[in-house]
Amino acid sequence: SIFWLNLFMGIGIALSVIAFSPLVSSFFHEPKLILVLLCISIIFPLSSSSSAHLALLERESKFKKIASIEIFSSVIGVGVALFLAYKNFGVYSLVWQTVIFNALSTIQFWKASGWRPCLKKMFVFSGLKEIFGFSAHLSIFNLINYFSRNADSLIIGRYMAPPILGAYSLAYRIMLFPLASLTFVAARSLFPILSKNQDDHVQLKKTYLDCVYAILFLVIPLMSGLAFLSKPFVILIFGKQWMLTADILLWLAPTAIIQSVLSTTGTVFMAKGRTDILMKLGILGMILYMSAFIAGVQFNIITFATFYIIANVINFLPAMFL
């Protein structure tokens, strides 16, 4: 039942993306966006069709297998993207990188888990009733979180010059590196451990805080060093033409420290079965981030990044103390 629910939701999101692609294209005054969004829409059914298989692998703590699948898919995807970029496919090289990554990951997750859906059990309403609240709240949170994480680029792309968007996007990807490399991996491996101790509040809190301290031990010096050395780092790696990225990175680095902790809080609420709280925090975060983006874009990109930090600090407090 969970598999079919996820699959139908993925198809629904894909159809929504297809339906709204002309509006998005019109908003950005870019006709090519319609075809780009049509290609990207394939991702949602693909990823949703493997979410149950991935969950089974995570429950069995097969994180080494998951990592090998994702690394293999990522390498192939990047290779295809580089080849297409060399052949002057432009933005479509990035689109197909994402599609291929999701397609390869889906195939391998299905193979690794060994589980197959059953058509006869597509509509087991008793099973759906038990998990509908959990899954519905989590799905809404994921949708809100995805929108919040991409709204900055949408707003900058609409109201600022393309070079500014490029500089910000590069700085954001650099900021995201420790989150993707450390925090997301830690949160994924932490979930089954916390789930086993969901009724033991003391042990759950201790395990979670130990994980947070370990993340901060690595992220704080890394991002602090990156902030102080942002200009020589960017010049050395990317060249002087990306100096604006260095200025933005100086302000985004503290945001990475905050988000390295914020992105793990969802694991606790999921382990406790309180995805309703997670959804409410997601709504609060979306309001804070959108307010910061709308206010910041009225000035300049540095002010934009500064308001982003402030929104993260405000969002951090209720997420940690709840």
UniProtKB/TrEMBL annotation:
Record has Transmembrane helix as a keyword: yes
Subcellular location: Cell membrane
Protein's organism: Klebsiella pneumoniae
Keywords: Cell membrane, Membrane, Transmembrane, Transmembrane helix
Residues spanning the membrane: 7-28, 34-57, 69-86, 92-110, 122-144, 164-187, 208-228, 248-270, 301-321
GO cellular component: plasma membrane
The name this protein goes by in its record: Lipopolysaccharide biosynthesis protein
InterPro entries assigned: Poly_Biosynth_Transport (IPR050833)
The family this protein is said to belong to: Belongs to the polysaccharide synthase family.
Record membrane topology: Multi-pass membrane protein
Pfam families hit by this protein: Polysacc_synt_3 (PF13440)
